[in-house]
Amino acid sequence: MKPVGRALTTFTVGFLALDALLLGYLGVVLSRPLVLASGGVCAVAAALVVVGWRRYRRALVELEAARQAIRAELESIRDLLKQHHLHN
Q1: How many domains, the chain?
Q2: Structural domain boundaries enclosing 37
Q3: Model confidence pLDDT, tens digit, residues 2-21
Q4: Contacts of residue 21, Cβ cutoff 8 Å, sequence gap at least 6
Q5: What pLDDT, on a 0 to 100 scale, did the predictor assign at position 86?
């Protein structure tokens, strides 16, 4: 499922960037400030998607590190319990 998320994010950023470019061009050619502003909104939205994706990936890395730490702690507790049981 990881490649699907990356592909969807890439598609979304590309789509928003293309919309921003086309709306910006159309706003300049037709001298329509509202169309130009909507192009700017699309550009900001594309940037926010990239920032959100990076933040999401960082959170996933932190979660995986926490899972590894919990697994290591669990194994040490299991080893301790096994040793205690063997000494009785």
Answers
A1: 1
A2: 2-87
A3: 566 788 999 999 999 999 99
A4: 39
A5: 58
Asked if 36 and 28 touch (Cβ cutoff 8 Å), the reply is yes
Tell me which residue has tokens 């990936």. 57
Cβ burial 34-73 (10 Å sphere, 16+ → b, else e): ebbebbeebbebbeebeeebeeeeeeeeeeeeeeeeeeee
Ordered alpha helix ranges (H), 1-32: 2-29
Nearest to 13 by CA among 48, 45, 46: 46
Lookup result for tokens 């940037």: 47
DSSP string for residues in 48-69:
HHHHHHHHHHHHHHHHHHHHHH
Question: What does pTM read for this prediction?
Answer: 0.74
